[in-house]
Amino acid sequence: MQYAMVIDLNRCVGCHACAVACKAEWDVPAHNGRNWVRRLGPAETPYGLSKTYYPGLCNHCDEPACVEVCPADTVMKTFACPETGRKKTMEVAATYKDPFTGVVLIDKDRCIGCGACAEACPYGARYVNPDIGEDGKADKCTFCIERVEAGLEPACVQTCLSNARIFGRLDQGEVARYLKRGASRLESDAVRIGPNVFYFGNKKDMHLLKTTCTPKEMPEASLIGKRALFARLGKGVLKGTGLAGIVGMACGIVSSDDSGDGKA
Amino acid sequence: MAPRMSRRRFLQTASLAAASVPLSKVVASAQPTLAPGTFAAPGSFKDTKTVTGGVCEMCFWRCQLVGKVRNGRLVKLEGNPKSIDNGKALCARGNAGIKLVYDPDRLKYPMKNVGERGKPVWKRISWDEALDECASRLDGIVKKYGPQGLAVWYHGASAHYPTAFFKFLGVPNMCEPAFYQCRGQTAIAMLHTLGFVPNEDVDMANAKAMLLIGTHIGENVHLSHVRNFITGIERGARVIVVDPRFSSAAAKAHVWVKIKPATDTAFLLAVMNHLIASGRYNKKFVEKWCNGFEKFKTAIGGMTVAKAAKICDVPESQIVEVADILAANAPNVAIHPGRHATWYGNDFQRIRAHACLAALLGAYEVPGGIQKIERMSTGHVHWPEREFKDDYDPEDYALAEMEEKYPFRPPGTPTDMIRETMISGKPYPIKGMIVWGANPIKTFPCQEETEKALKNMDFVMVTDVSPTDITMWADILLPEACYLERYDHIEKGTQWDCADKPQQFIAPRMPLIEPMFERKDSVWIINGIARRMGFEKDIPVKTQEEYVDHCLKEAGLSLEKIRQQDGIYIRKGVCSYCHAQKQHSFPTSSGKIELYLDDLKDEGFSPVPVYTRVPEPPRGYARMIYGRSPVHSFNRTQNNAWLNHEIPENPVWINDELAARMGLKDGDRVALENQDGKRSVSTSVLKVTPGIRKDVIFLAHGFGTFNSAMTVGYGKGIDDQSMNTRTVIEPETGCCGMRVNFVRIVKDGRPIDIPA
Question: Which fold would CATH assign to domain B622-752?
Fold first, then answer.
């Protein structure tokens, strides 16, 4: 199965409750966000004047670009299906896609905070939370899987005053019904990694959303690769440093690697 | 202003200072040595206690909430699952209450201003010193000038007990901006026309059509109200929004009437005239339940569709379309009177026109219409009746009575009359000002007049939660517990959807956490002052708990009982639809809806709603209109770190074609300058859009605080009120018109005229 979310723009009034509830729920720093609301328009579309919103969050993609770039060491991790209890063991780095729920998660204990995953995401759904650990950790939306496992709704869904956010299994219930009615993904030719957040709305609002908020290109793979490489060398020294700083710091990284840091 | 430093950035800075630490040490310490799961945020549902009884006051809608508390610290607020009003949901502001509670900028201790008013230098003092000084200064003014020498500007639930005390003292000068700069006319026009005040009790969820005139639902996020609106749309209502700007509500509408500002009454009159002329009004309802139809019909007969189309600058066909939609869906139409009405100084008549249109359509107490909602009632706390010295009677000093002005005013004294008297000393001196929870600097037009008035005082006492603009003008500044730390307001309401099983609820505000530092509630503060002024024996309640319990007694309830009910007491209610009520009731003097109101004629005003022209923008300027930002309440939330992150400033909306001609582009930093040459202190971002008329500039209200003690909100965005160097006081009500100023754009210090 795959968890998914539909955002019904016909119901959304752009109140930002989702973004703020998430901050409280997960102790997100004031200047970051696991989710966000962008205010769009009023702008002309071929279907008339539109003013709408882009409530965004991690898409828990079918082929997440963030997972493959994680430079942390891999471990074997066993996952269990919440419905059947079936188990599966996989080799994962510090970020991975749960094979049963489809939710993309971060193991914060093993995350080295390098930010490669954040740069790899074409939707900008990840950030490095500087307040966690000594050097920061990557953070993002988990679809509130922890709440869901405890029998609760995701925080953003619970607080949505007009029920514009619909969460559930992709293939069942209201989510599936919305998909049948034409809820669609923010995808382009260059970015087609199977996002599992869907948007539903009238023609003009969907036009404005799609033309302004669909990522047009994947982040430059070579740069992310470099960041991951250096991060692997640096073992956590680089957290929060912009790409431009990496090359200049390389010597320091190597020497720090020699310092007896045991995590290889 | 730089955003507040995060812990991470603080550590970075600190580690720069300690540059001698070898890198190897730093790296070593970066290794996780803690137990697995240490770095993952636990979530608000884990290891927290749920505390019930919260009632929000991030705005006045007062949703019912619960707090998640971990180790004595409030970590999250959620809607109370028991609520039949907001349910488990809260808006952005409700969620962000956490950041108000723990805002490091909040007032912590009583302070004395040892500098000047407006340029304060604060000295921390004890509560004893603060209350001694307040009591002796207030007493001194009363002794020298009489109780009429004091005035009170107030806002919010915590001000109820203080205002009751100042009434007991005999103070005749009380003013609530919530009336005179906001909803005064809406309430009073409805009261005189219908005999009751429906507020926002409009059954949008069950309407077949809705008409909103400048009502920014969605930008003003009043939770169950927005839910009503969205539900109505989902159930298929046709939505008409009349607004010079493509508002959030207009974006959901089927018909957007891009009306010229200040002409709404002409529009309403033309729609009514057209309905009457074409015989498509509810004859049965009008005959039975409306007073003065024939005179009304004749009086509005001149406002034809053709004439209004010209005045309003909208196509004739659109006025007809609106009338057609309303007629086709009557009586199940929501003619929403709105809330904030202080626009042009002729707003009383516009609100009356709303009520009359709803009457022609029979849209009262029917599904979709304006409702008379029955809520539970609670008692009041009274200070004892008092014999004043020398036959003093506060009513003899009521300024509006003395000048025989504003016969249809809402409760209290018009703001500008108090302010003028503070400056002129006529007809008697006002020398002491008490401000409780209001921020008159941002609320009243003509800021320089307000400042002049404050400078003229012998004593200014301000109580607030945060260091708002007005606190800079205090002599003594008192820190109040916020809504999550005190008892006070008792919220009363019903299920949010009129068509649902009728229920009534009562939810008294109860604290979710203890106040920190030396913050106190209003009962404690006022009793401290009263005692020192020699009124110990008159004090009606000792604590805020006693205050609330006393009020609940009338409903046969108590805090204890409601605590056991998880903070909300619910009982069976009354269906508001007339078929359930058997018949309508309009408790006016005629017992009917006053299409024609004799009382108005007696006072020399038009007894029938009338359109009055207002001055046009001078050449080179556009009319400034303002509204709400969905994550902010007036000027009270801009310092909230979470809300500031969502919407940090108020974009200045300008028409795209105009901007192109002016060489301006979306995202430019701009200031504003008004017709009197007043320039905004701060700047904001320009929003270039086709979604606004060319003769208006729009921005959200409440930004650009002048107090640098508000480290997050200080100087962010433009203070719209600073552009209001003029106002028009409505002769019927004494309320302010605040859309009567004109602005042009300033970029890089250079003013740019708005092209004609």
Answer: Barwin-like endoglucanases (2.40.40)
